[in-house]
Amino acid sequence: MKTLGQDHASLAPKPIGPRNEGCALDLGWVRSVRINNAAVARRAATLPTRRSVKGAHQAAWLCKAVACMDLTTLSGDDTAARVRRLCAKARQPVRADLLQAIGMERLQVGAVCVYHEMIGPALEALEGSGIPVAAVSTGFPAGLSPLHLRLAEIEQSVAAGAQEIDIVISRRHVLEGDWGALHDELRRFREACGPAHMKGILATGELGDLGQVARASLVAMMAGADFIKTSTGKEPVNATLPVGLVMLRCIRDYHERTGQWVGMKPAGGISKAKDALNWLVMVKEELGDRWLEPDLFRFGASSLLGDIERQLEHHVTGAYSAGWRHGLA
Ligand SMILES: O=C[C@H](O)COP(=O)(O)O
Prior knowledge:
This protein is α/β, with parallel strands linked by helices.
């Protein structure tokens, strides 16, 4: 993905990708995890210092970031009208004149992510676009409601038409080292999802350290999570590069050992185009190009798209516009 060549002239939603069937809980594998914190910190720190993608290459990578975006609204004051505006942006995330100037024929986001009550308005507004609706679930963001209600919430969101379900794990299972309880909980969530893809939100900012992030990532994948996702966006610390690096290496390890494919979704606090480029570079270097497709990589972001469109406008016109000109919903 170096230039805006033929392959990338159209970045429209693709059919939902491979599923992770999971496997039995392998406690030996989980307990064998060791993290070299200093090495992780060093590797993550090099990413923002690179000057790797510029000009037309950068425009192409930013379009890739848009195609891999779960355009999100998760606010207590969400309304059907706000969701409809967000969905209009999901269909046409970047102004037509800018797309034309950079040689893109079609560009849409990976999904629209909302609360359960907003699935209906989102589906209506996205009809015919091929863009899936993702619903956050299981008592998002804390995940502390009764288990039967969390399971019912998943089932109702799938019945309402959500094709992707973003569940939150019980952080206490990680903090108490109860890997059996975590695996059981996530298996039940996965069964409740049925045909919908399950993204397992680890809430990494609440798990204590990188070792726990790695163990939780492995158990979530063993339980059948189709994606592992860093954060709800509501924790004090959300998607950081060191956490992302550890999770990507767990995905690679799991793929090498089981042959199964699991996607990655960094979410929370990713609001600048430069942040998105750092993540894309890290995914390319750690997992390779196959993971730079929307069926295996998503950004969860509510405001990132505005900055990306602004950077694309700068690429085309040479001038920066005011941020307010790129409102989302
Ligand atoms: O899952 C997506 C996140 O909630 C979005 O977080 P953000 O509002 O910080 O971009």
